[in-house]
Specification:
Shape: globular
CATH superfamily of the largest domain: Dihydrodipicolinate Reductase, domain 2
Radius of gyration: 20 Å
Strand order of the largest sheet: 13-12-11-7-10-9-8-14
Bound molecules: nicotinamide-adenine-dinucleotide
Distance between the termini: 41 Å
Strand content: 15-25%
Helix content: 25-40%
Length: 341
């Protein structure tokens, strides 16, 4: 049985909390024992809802040891791992502190604000011989796993082209509005668009260069709208777009269209449809659980069985940050083709 401490129960932290409650009820060998959040109102169930339907219930916090100070929790609790759902600007610091205290770490995406911080996190995991995984949930999201399988097995032939999109209303729920402060979140390009950047990196590896057109709409929030072309030596055509300024009743949406030599995949309105060139289109049978549930199960399984983190190794999550850094540079230069280092 692994003992866990959850750090940050804002929007995403509550999504993780729901999954710990579920996993425990299913008899999975993981037990949430402590929760830390700087804002004590959260322990009175005073929450601001986010853009997807997670963590919306009322919780019984009397079951957990509650802390408003991270150092105090790390000092007092004997935990196997911590699950970090803090704002991005705190990821590196909190991860390194927990690793240095001998705990494994599951940390929300994006890994950190920049690749230098990512390197420090990886070094801390290595020197303490502890596991570190960044919760890139799409790597355990059934519809995205399906593309990965098609790319690797070439079931529909070679990959030709892909378009990846996510977008929605401006996030207005975050603690002290950190999400809309460029220096704390990196803006939409680092916070939200990174899901598709990481998917592209996971599927195809680092591109040699990127060309990004992006714009700022909300004062001080960095790039809010982004469109990137990913350049690979073999000529694959890949584009990803994000826009978190879609107001009104737009809500939130994620989708992709991927084309192979002998068929294409369309993911829209939460449904994946496969269109082979020959024969009828079909909707594949996929696991029903979301990536949030499956990523925790995967991480716990790696810890319990001392398996390496192969689905989302931290070195790969760092590469994803390096791609975004090149995208920001390209956007700063009006779309100039920029090498990915
Ligand atoms: N995987 C996904 O789909 C997904 C979706 C949304 C957010 N996220 C990520 O999750 C992380 C958190 O985002 P969020 O939307 O939940 O933000 P949030 O502002 O809703 O939650 C952050 C929480 O951290 C707490 N906090 C802030 N400073 C603290 C400190 N020093 N010590 C302890 N607690 C502190 C806040 O009180 C708040 O409850 C971010 O990295 C974000 O990118 C991931």
């Amino acid at each position: 049985m692994l003992k866990v401490g959850l750090i940050g129960i804002g929007f995403m932290g509550r999504g993780h909390l729901d999954n710990y409650i579920r996993l425990e009820s299913e008899g999975f060998p993981v037990k949430l024992v402590a929760i830390c959040d700087i804002d004590p109102a959260k322990f009175e169930n005073k929450f601001v809802p986010g853009n997807i339907d997670v963590g919306t219930r009322k919780y019984d916090f009397s079951k957990y040891k509650l802390y408003t100070n991270l150092d105090e929790m790390l000092e007092k609790e004997k935990l196997d791992y911590v699950d970090i759902c803090l704002p991005t600007y705190l990821h590196a610091e909190a991860t390194i502190k927990a690793l240095d205290r001998g705990m494994h770490v599951l940390c929300e995406k994006p890994m950190a604000l920049n690749s230098k911080e990512c390197t420090e996190m990886i070094e801390a995991a290595k020197r303490n011989n502890k596991k570190l995984m960044i919760a890139h949930c799409l790597r355990l999201w059934p519809e995205y796993e399906y593309i990965k399988e098609c790319v690797e097995t070439e079931r529909f032939g070679k990959f030709l082209e892909g378009y990846f999109y996510r977008g929605g209303g401006t996030p207005k729920w975050s603690y002290e509005n950190w999400l809309l402060k460029k220096e704390k979140s990196g803006g939409c390009i680092l916070d939200q668009h990174i899901h598709d950047v990481d998917t592209i990196n996971w599927l195809f590896g680092k591109p040699s260069a990127v060309s990004t057109i992006a714009r700022n709409v909300i004062p001080g929030s960095g790039y809010d709208i982004v469109s990137t072309n990913y350049i690979y030596p073999d000529g694959k055509v890949i584009n990803a777009q994000d826009d978190w300024t879609l107001q009104g009743d737009y809500g939130f949406e994620m989708l992709f269209r991927v084309n192979f030599e002998r068929g294409n995949l369309i993911f829209q309105n939460g449904v994946l449809k496969v269109n082979p060139n020959e024969g009828k289109s079909f909707i594949p049978e996929l696991p029903k659980e979301m990536g949030y549930y499956r990523e925790i199960k995967y991480f716990v399984d790696c810890l319990l069985n001392d398996k390496p983190i192969t689905v989302a190794p931290p070195e790969s999550s760092k590469e994803t940050i390096e791609i975004v850094e090149a995208e920001i540079k390209s956007a700063d230069n009006k779309g100039q083709v920029t090498p990915v280092l």
